[in-house]
Amino acid sequence: MFGFPLLPRQKNMPSSILRLCTILVVLLLASGCSQDEPAPPPATATKPTAPKIYTCSSCHPHSLDKAHEFACTVCHQGKENVLSQEEAHNGLISRPAHPEHMASTCAPCHAQQVTDASHSLHFTSANEINSVRRAFGAETDLARAEDIPVHAQITTPLQLVDDLLRRRCLRCHISYDGDPYAETLRGTGCAACHLEFRHSSLVSHAFIKKTPDSQCLHCHNSNFVGADYYGRYEHDLHWDYRTPYKKDGSEADRPYGVEYHQLATDVHKKAGLACIDCHQGGELMATSTTTCRSCHEFTAAKQNNGLQLAENNGTVILSLSHKKITVPQLHHPAHAQYRGKVACAVCHSQWSYTDEGTHLFRQDDEDYDPWEAISVQGSFEVEHEVYTNINLDGYPYPFMSDKLTGKTTIGLWHKGFELRRWEFPIICADDDGILQICRPILDLHLSWVDEESEVIMDNITPNKTPRHGLLPYTPHTTGKAGPFYRQRLKTNLHLLEQPLNMDKAPGLNPAMKDTKK
Questions:
Q1: What's this model's pTM, rounded to 2 decimal places?
Q2: What tens digit of pLDDT does each residue of 224-240 get?
Q3: Residues with Cβ < 8 Å from 232, sequence gap 6 or more?
Q4: Total domains in the fold of the chain
């Protein structure tokens, strides 16, 4: 009656049982199709999830100093309170203090400081680049490092020097954030000095007004003036000399890229003076200078704005520790006798940097094996390229970045020395006829091998340089003159009539011979 076929009648099955089974089956099927069955309970309604809103602090929980407590987007641009990280980073300026951006980010509040800084030697590197370029034939000086030409093809020694400067020498330029060693990574532009970095990372986003020495040493290391203030002299680069070795066989710590000898520190360091006590903001960001006489002749100190005066007796207040110290005054007769003839460092420097025969070699081919023993040479790029290419098969040709633009091109610049010593300072006369401590900064030798292992330039040396590449400099290794200062003067006073620009002949300066007996 429901349109369902009846169950087939089985043999010997009573008809009454068969009818009963058929009725039960029909009832079961009918109950499954009943229109009176209650509907299942409705699903519980879920509240829609609110979209995630991205703020800068969601990913970058930095604390700012009171003077800079404003929205991150004021300096970094980008967008705040958005639905995705990609949208938040739209238009982001990751390094707003970089020289390319500081005019629009820092200058609105620090206009004079930005103007002064952009013309300072810390930003232009004019002294360093022009002394090297002139030694190799440049006729005119450049105003700033960014003016160094980029050459599509290199055919002259000066063009090779330009490539060397941009890709190897300017690792401390204000546009580059440093090698990723523990104490060389830093900010760029204004942030290089005013944002604290330590152990390869940003310590705080709070800007520093009074820069600690650790910030200065991010650049002033590796036999560069400043490291000597702390008594540091870089080890020889070959792995046989890079001691001490650790008991567990691991490498020694290399916070600046290469291990260093610990020599005598500067007497001013022992007294507690920080770098900024003598090298104040005006000098670092403009053109003013602080001299020894600024503090050691009390009247001059008052006029020349040396250390902060505490009392009218030569007592000064240190910038960072706020400690008061009394500065010794110039009472010894030798100061009056040799004033205007001899620089203070000639008698008072305890030691100086005397790295002779600096060889710089551009490698374009894949022959890395000769460099394995001196792969550690203060450049992370060189170290990484040599190690990776020796230990990994099929690695590409050597590349190195332009420290001003970040662009990477073929050619890896290696560095080595003929002789590294510190025993006795070299003494020579400058162009004004004043005895100075000198170092062979321009004792340079350039070579270049192309991708086909062909020697393009071999041992190119400067054609315009005074005596063995010597240039005056001020070692930061000051100490008491001691009983032998007269011997230093007696041996070298004849040089007052032989300033550096009067003798272009190659060879060892007589001062070097006299002081190395």
A1: 0.83
A2: 999 999 999 999 999 98
A3: 221, 260, 261, 262, 263
A4: 2
